Amino acid sequence: SNEPDFLNVWFGLAKVGCSVAFLNTNIRSRSLLHCFSCCGARTLIVGSDLVDSLDDILLEDNIQVWTMRRHSEHSKVHTLLDRLDTAPDQPVPAELRATKSLRTPTLYIFTSGTTGLPKAAVITHLQSLKAAAGFWAFGGTEDDVVYIPLPLYHSAASLIGIGGTIELGATCVLKKKFSASQFWNDCRQHDVTIFQYIGELCRYLCNQPKTEMDQDHKVRMGVGNGLRQDVWREFLSRFGNIKMCEVYGSTEGNLCFMNHIGKIGTVGRSNLFYRLLFKYDM
């Protein structure tokens, strides 16, 4: 789930040359086993708050399970925190990742599975670096504070959100789970300047009771996708002059469009490099 350990595990495994598969915490049984088989994973690292929700079928399928705890009541679940206390502090040997390149897979991010079982989108190191440039392309700086209420197992929060924050050298406010009633209080408390959204998130905010503090915040930019025109207009009218930056694309897609100009209702433009590299008709 959304917690610092998610990032620790992700970047730690990347540093030793491992590919990582992000799993939706809501999938179970057959869909979960399918995700393991399609990307060849044999090890699961699970947050301490999710251990009790593990399926027995997973523990019986020769999948090694680790958790961010010091002790576990499950005999087949190994613990990590106690081992970190005795871990060596020497630098990770570079030869462990010597065979990796920009075109080597670093992540597997799964589709939602609405038309069948979840499908793994293969993310290379190059793709992850390109996604991390999103905030910068929209005008983000190192002085920004980025609010991420979306689940990290999706590419928006992980690649664009976390990756973009690190690329800028900015500050991240990671929310465990989106809350419409707490959203603006969080933004005021942490001096948030950029937030991530999906279209319905903004609708939920607009559906909250109006208050005299609706425009009492430092938010200057929202980055996301799927924002309907009517919600876009209502959001700006109520919460102030916030630059809404739409990204139109998919995790498994080859390119995306970015609405830099803030024009309501457009999917945006393809960048110069895409126009040079890919042939397509509009």
UniProtKB/TrEMBL annotation:
<dbReference type="GO" id="GO:0005789">
    <property type="term" value="C:endoplasmic reticulum membrane"/>
</dbReference>
<dbReference type="GO" id="GO:0005324">
    <property type="term" value="F:long-chain fatty acid transmembrane transporter activity"/>
</dbReference>
<dbReference type="InterPro" id="IPR020845">
    <property type="entry name" value="AMP-binding_CS"/>
</dbReference>
<dbReference type="GO" id="GO:0044539">
    <property type="term" value="P:long-chain fatty acid import into cell"/>
</dbReference>
<dbReference type="GO" id="GO:0005886">
    <property type="term" value="C:plasma membrane"/>
</dbReference>
<dbReference type="InterPro" id="IPR042099">
    <property type="entry name" value="ANL_N_sf"/>
</dbReference>
<keyword id="KW-0443">Lipid metabolism</keyword>
<dbReference type="Pfam" id="PF00501">
    <property type="entry name" value="AMP-binding"/>
</dbReference>
<dbReference type="GO" id="GO:0004467">
    <property type="term" value="F:long-chain fatty acid-CoA ligase activity"/>
</dbReference>
<feature type="domain" description="AMP-dependent synthetase/ligase">
    <location>
        <begin position="2"/>
        <end position="269"/>
    </location>
</feature>
<comment type="similarity">
    <text>Belongs to the ATP-dependent AMP-binding enzyme family.</text>
</comment>
<dbReference type="InterPro" id="IPR000873">
    <property type="entry name" value="AMP-dep_synth/lig_dom"/>
</dbReference>
<keyword id="KW-0436">Ligase</keyword>
<protein>
    <recommendedName>
        <fullName>Long-chain-fatty-acid--CoA ligase</fullName>
    </recommendedName>
</protein>
